[in-house]
Amino acid sequence: MLILVYDQYELIATEYAATFTDEFDVRPFDRRLMESFADLLRLSGGSDALDVGCGPGQATAELARCGLNAVGIDGSPTMVSIARQRYPQARYQVADMFDLPYPPASFAAVCAWYSIIHTSTELLPSLFAEFGRVLTDPGWLLLGFQTDAPPSVYAEAFGHRVDMTFLRHDVPTVCDALHTAGFTVYATARRERQEHLNELTAQAFVIAHRTVDQAGPPPRSPSIEH
């Protein structure tokens, strides 16, 4: 369902990957949140994580650095090729995140790190349902996305003519879509725009879990810096 967006990223993949490198090194809050997500996964007995819309692989590599068995998928073959070369400690596959090529209960966690920025609000429940389909019981989901700003439309990027719209979702809307898809929201966080990092908007993060067996509560979250 995102084929046209993947085609746009094919045009800019090399320049995009050269521009956005090692983002977690300069964003300690984001790194601590990713580490807390990995802790939650381990506390529930899981270790296999799928990074959807992985791009050049930064978040996939960060999941691997946190000790998880990480797999990244992206609809851009060039992005996947770059990720394989740059971060060989994880595995990668070309795939559409709306149609994941895995059977049910394949992963204990799904990470969508800035991967829903091209998905309209009305499509979020079906996307989250697809994420839930491949999760084990219990299964964890981490979302990172831009928030508190209007959409941005680009006709040019990195010297290429493109047609790309970047959506900024608000947190309550994302949480409602998660509930519709059968998830329970565990934690939300918001970080202000960092101008020195060329961020254009505030950043939002949501951790949710999908538990088919409700016999017991989920584990408590480790502390995250604020």
TrEMBL record:
<keyword id="KW-0489">Methyltransferase</keyword>
<dbReference type="GO" id="GO:0000234">
    <property type="term" value="F:phosphoethanolamine N-methyltransferase activity"/>
</dbReference>
<feature type="domain" description="Methyltransferase">
    <location>
        <begin position="50"/>
        <end position="139"/>
    </location>
</feature>
<dbReference type="Pfam" id="PF13649">
    <property type="entry name" value="Methyltransf_25"/>
</dbReference>
<comment type="pathway">
    <text>Lipid metabolism.</text>
</comment>
<protein>
    <submittedName>
        <fullName>SAM-dependent methyltransferase</fullName>
    </submittedName>
</protein>
<dbReference type="InterPro" id="IPR029063">
    <property type="entry name" value="SAM-dependent_MTases_sf"/>
</dbReference>
<comment type="pathway">
    <text>Phospholipid metabolism.</text>
</comment>
<dbReference type="GO" id="GO:0032259">
    <property type="term" value="P:methylation"/>
</dbReference>
<dbReference type="InterPro" id="IPR041698">
    <property type="entry name" value="Methyltransf_25"/>
</dbReference>
<keyword id="KW-0808">Transferase</keyword>
